[in-house]
């Protein structure tokens, strides 16, 4: 390695555990392995990957940053709940890792990690009031207010996907994530196939699993059922984002995540719903942009957070604001 490695960053996703060795913001090495099921197995796998990174970096790593699913206590590094990868209920991830790894470890909620990365290195550079919304398997959000990350008393603030909304034409209030996430879009499409004729979706589903990406592709090709599914999802997210604007008055909102790359079938209704909702109250529309760092935002954010642990132990070092 030409550059000097300083941080290893891990992204604990529902299907993949990704690892990157950083030198500053430069990625030196990266790889991924399947995320195991169960808390103990996840801890063991993380320890193995951190040790692998240390070996690759010739022992020069100075800290570990982890982007983790679920609400994370910002003081203790305890995961309150992460059901997608087994039972994580008040799980002391930081404590268990620190007992086996002799490096400073910082654990941050995945949406917050992505927000930090996008704010400091991506589309949010130069702003002080910034929101990042991710539409993917689930729906997440992070908020920078006055140059500081909002975490809340227990690290559970800004759980945007958990706010309750009503789907168009339905009276049932459920979480935004239940209505408009990638998981929800795929589930709605699967359910519709049982009662509605959609030759394109039916034909595609014989060869491929129904995913939000498939629905988005068919929507872009003009399939009316898939277009309606993306329209509904975009509309609900747009109206929910309008409420973020009312509450926070951000300078910029970046939208990322796999589903956000669906293009016009999602973005069109999202922007129209957002702008229309704010116009009714006379609110100006903030800058709405595509996130720049894609799936790597959380890895960068975890590394930035970990680097704070390094500078706190280095006399005269300048600590990055979060």
Can you offer a commentary on this structure?
- This protein is of the alpha/beta class and 322 residues long.
- It folds into 2 domains: 7-117 and 295-311, Nucleotidyltransferase, domain 5; 126-292, Nucleotidyltransferase, domain 5 (2-Layer Sandwich).
- It is built from 10 helices and 14 strands.
- The longest helix has 25 residues, at 224-248.
Order of helical and strand elements:
EEEHEEEHEHEEEEEHHHHHEHEH
Alpha-carbon Rg, integer: 20 Å
Give the DSSP E fraction (strand runs of 2 or more residues).
15-25%
**Mean pLDDT reading:** 89
Count the helices. How many? 10
Domains, number? 2
- Give the neighbour order of strands across the main sheet: 3-2-1-4-7
The CATH superfamily label of the largest domain reads ATPase, nucleotide binding domain
Q: Quick one: overall form?
A: globular
Q: What fraction, in percent, of the residue positions are helical?
A: 25-40%
CATH 2nd-level architecture of the largest domain: 2-Layer Sandwich
User: Which class best fits the helix and strand makeup?
Assistant: alpha/beta
DSSP summary, beta strand count: 14
Q: Class of the largest domain in CATH?
A: Alpha Beta
Calculate the terminal CA-CA distance, rounded to whole Å: 29 Å
Main β sheet profile = 5 strands, mixed
